[in-house]
Hints:
single chain; alpha+beta; 9-stranded mixed β-sheet; 6-stranded mixed barrel
Amino acid sequence: MLTVAWMAGLIRRRWARLLGVAAVVALVVAQVALLGAFVMHSNARMTTVAARSVPVDWQVQVEPNSDVGAARRIVATTPGVVRFRETGYGDVASFSATTGASVQVTGAGKMLGLPTDYAHAFPGEVRTLSGSGRGILLFQQTAANLHVAPGDAIVAHLPSGRNVPLHVDGIVDLPQADSLFQTVGAPPSAGATAPPDNVAVVPLQLWETLYASPGGNARDAGKTQFHVNLSRNLPSSPADAFAEVIARAHNLEARLAGTGAVGDNLAAMLDAARTDALYSELLFLFLGLPGVLLAWLLAIIAGSSGRGRRRREQAILRIRGASLRQIAGLSIAESLLVSVLGIALGVLASAVVYRVALGARTSGLVDSTLLLWTAVGALSGLVLSGAAVAMPALRDARLLTVRASSIETKRAQSPLWERLYLDVVLLLASGLVFWQSTKDAYQVVLVPEGVPTISVNYLTLLGPFLLWAGFALFAWRLADKALLFGRHIVGAILRPLTKTLSGVAAASMARQRRLLSRGLVLIALSIAFAFSVAIFNTTYMNQARVDAQLTNGADVAVNGGRTGVSHALQSRVGALPGVSAVQPMQHRLAYVGTDLQDLYGIDPTTIGNATPMSDAFFQGGNATAVLGRLAATPDGVLVSEETVKDFQLQQGDAIRLRLQGPDHAYHVVPFRYVGVAREFPTAPHDSFLVANRDYVARKTGISAAETLLVRTSTSPREVAIRIRGMLDPASPVVVKDLDTELRATLSSLTAVDLTGLTRLELFFAVLIAAASSGLILWLGFVERKRSFAILHALGARRDQVASFVWAEALYSALGGAVLGAMAGWLQSYMLVKVLTGVFDPPPESLSVPTGYLSLAAATAGLSIAVAAWMAVRAAQRPAVEVIRDL
């Protein structure tokens, strides 16, 4: 009965405090649940998207002179295989076609034998452009080289010298040509091989008569592959799915006993996804964990804010004969009440926000992922309530006497951390870790000898965390000492607000300095958290667009292949609605010694009209100066850092490159080294060259531009659709747009979609800022109702009491805002700088979202104003009523 009566009294008289503490517990529960669910949801989505993007999971190549029938039976009985088809690969010396009075002859190519239902079994591997999707199909690049269309005749010249006439039934595209023509069984260090430009797709029966018939010419022998799709019942984690698919492939190779090798396309895609999952977990640690820790700290302080009141109540209960067991039961009951209410609010909030912020599409309100992490969040909320409410009350009940429980104890000396200068030590350690991380150019993904490996140095995470902890303690020291030793300065600052009571207000604040310092530190930490999350996420998102634009080349890139983009097409593209600038760019191959590199011919004075030229692209960090130097040197060339190192180049050195001319032979062309390009639109990451377009055209005799870079004033995807609509279906021209590239898996940290995490973190940052500034300040005012009641009893006017409240609010708000903004900017700078090695290219500066930061500051300011207003109203109550309530 005592417990029930006590709880009823708490609900009736302390409902506001209970609800405030429960709200903070709910914030912790929802944050833990949603952030954990985000990581698992993100990883599961990566696995699903990676698996969905692979048309053929395995390419099982049968070794020459092996039993194809036996291999077929083994593949068919492999666990997890849902479909497979037999295919054939054969070499072709060349293709030829007679059109009018001319004869076109291609280089070497491939003859691909596919069953009639292949396109249905593996959608996405073969895309029909014109004509029929059955019979003899010609790759679009081959059709362009031979100048043929459906209905024309061509001849395939086999290595043995046989000439095979073929009637073209259709023109097709092979979107997955890189994997389709991979070298199965090649060692990882061998690197990728370019797919053939000339391919004919024929029915498997015809292919077998040409390459697999008994007694055929040995030089015409082909290779048989089984294309396999697996069940998509894979683990949700990309790393676990990768390990399982690899294990299945090894099992199949063991059963084949040397008669076949597996080209594992699915594992290759999952390998990239598990790297992205690692990035996601790193970002969770960088961005999510500080918010969780801050919410925990906020909840503990909110729960312990009524400790003085509990001590006095315990003293009264002990005077009236209550036992320690009864007092402990009451403390536990209060903790459970706060836990249940906070967990219920947190679970409801997480279920709603999960669908809105993460865009979850589930049949019910929640799914298993959220349920798991909600359970973790609920457990944390239960532990938190016990740590904040029950444990201090139990300790006080056990250790304190009645007299000690009835008065406020005061510490005789500074805390141990303050005497040891732990804050200074943490800040120095943070700077040391940061210096070490940036000095060594930390990289998450390393590529030794062309084989990507993941290398995570978790010590680099210490820098931001040490800064966060050190800043919290340092802000406490600063706020405490400012009130202790600078009360006269504080009084002078507050004089316009408190007038003649400035000295009294400053003295009162000095006596309450620990309570005020606690509020100021929480406000500073919440502002720092909001600033760091907002600045980092905005910088990250902007860099994702830069990365995609660098990969794609521009908003829209039109690639004409070897035939180039005609001047007529360039003019038509430039006249399209939504196109604001068009720049042709040559993409050739050039020999530097014996090293074959990509060469890009541009107009340095106008290239920036179509695609951004970032300072980070060039050594020296000044794009305008480097491009100006290139424009002023007609035979100038920009080279990569690797080329400078390999060939020991000095600026101004002459370089003799070999470029291909109209006769398809390579001829020596003199250039002069004028600068270094670290990155360039569409260029590879290792070695490439950038030269003047007009000079390259004059020296090679080929003026065509292979690529068209397009800047748009509307949606890049819409402009790309308009350009594709102008092209002939059999045209080899490929059009790519930035919107599609942003949704694709990129090659760096920006492969992770931060949209969900950004929404969550920014949402929680605003809530934490509001709670720490308003709720904690209000709870602090509530703790000092007795002081305000005494002031009122002594005859203080309403405006005088209000000046005390507003002075404390102003001190906490301004001090917390200034310190928090400085720390937030510094922490976001540190995060971006530590992760510079995985940005591609690194950002030139931080991106500041002024709109969001203004919203966060306004929310915090409004919360402080409301808390102060409520405290002023509470102080207007009759003193006798307030003291009786205490």
